[in-house]
Amino acid sequence: MSFLKKGELMEVIVKDNDTLEDALRRFRKKCQKAGLFSELKQRSHYTKPSEERIIAQRKAERREMKRLRKQRRRSRFW
């Protein structure tokens, strides 16, 4: 899911005292925050809706297990 609207471009303004490397670093960081890299990776090949459901279910299970581990860790200290 991208945070950019359709037709909106990502841009970085290069200041006089900036190097090209600094501008590229800021551009990559903006793209990372907008979720462009993960979206490109996800769209690089087609996944069937059934596969997407399975992946989402596995992610939810992992999140739940992680939450339970944290909860158990916290309860030991109290």
Structure overview:
The protein has 78 residues and is an all-alpha fold. It is built from 3 helices and no strands. It has 2 domains: 1-45, no CATH class; 47-78.
Measured by DSSP, the beta-strand proportion falls in under 5%
Poorly predicted regions are none
Q: What is the total tally of β strands?
A: 0
Gyration radius (Cα, Å) is: 20 Å
Q: Given the C-alpha coordinates, what overall shape results?
A: flat
Q: Number of helical runs?
A: 3
Overall average residue pLDDT: 89
Query: Sheet with the most strands?
Result: none
Residues in helix, %: 55-70%
Q: Roughly how many Å apart are the termini?
A: 39 Å
What structural class is derived from the secondary structure elements? mainly alpha
How many separate domains make up the residues? 2
Secondary-structure element series: HHH
